[in-house]
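Ticket #4471: structure output looks truncated?

Reporter: J.K.
Steps to reproduce: submitted the chain below (290 residues) through the standard prediction queue, then opened the result file.
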Amino acid sequence: MNGFNRRIKIRIEKIVLYTVLAVFIAFCLFPLYVTFRMSLQSPKDVWKNTFFFLPTLDNYKAVLLGLSHVGKASYPAVANFPYYLLNSIIVSVAVASVSLLLALPMSFAMVRYKFSGKNSLLIYIFFIKMLPPLAILFPLYVLFTKLNLTDTRTSLVIIYMTWVLPLSIWMMCGFIEDIPVALEESAMIDGCTRVGAFFRVVLPLAAPGIAATLIFNLILAWNEFLYALVLTGSHAKTAPVAICSFIYFQEIAWGCLCSAGMITVIPIIFLVIPIQKYLVRGLTSGAVTG
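Returned output as attached by the reporter:
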């Protein structure tokens, strides 16, 4: 009888747990559903706010092709969105790639070599990411203004790396620390140099971590809004900032705004799903010991 009651209790606990998880997932996905639904509506259907409507891809065509008209509605800001989307792609790829290339040797040195203050240095590197954005935004804005780098992709790459690079180092340290030193020593016994062991042993074994770090860097740079809003104008504006241009004084281009939002969100979702376990592992790995 006690065993039967215990099984009933376990089933009830599972039902409650799954119900809570289902409600939480539905709560998180509801804004995405509303955004996707509105992206398929014509301007008339958006203002009618009806549940049943005839889906249309006019909003996506206008956003991707840079058309300033959706039906009879005119939205001039939409015309430049493809260029701003290209800015986001170029800046994000540059930041993710350069940060990873710098983080790999730095994290390898932090893990494999012993020197005084190593743990303190790693904590200091991560502390840089914890600085409030406004603490470095305005000093860098003044610096970029004097160097004529405002409203350029170069300025965005530099300032994004100030907080993407510390996280890259932190994540890669966790992945490299999991690779046994004995494998590198075996490679060096067979004739490899320290650098050769790094390229032939460490990098292949750390490939999942490298991919996770690269995509995580890409996500951080892709979603950034504040720095791009302050440092860019009409030339280097990125997609998140450009979406705000769909909000006019007279009205809001809801269809184009939502379709642009979906265009910026969907690629990130497909990138995160395959490597989510590596992202969690990299973010939760502890500091280097020793």
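Triage note (M.O.): checked the attachment and the full token line is present. Residues 134 and 275 are 31 Å apart (CA to CA).
Status: closed, working as intended.
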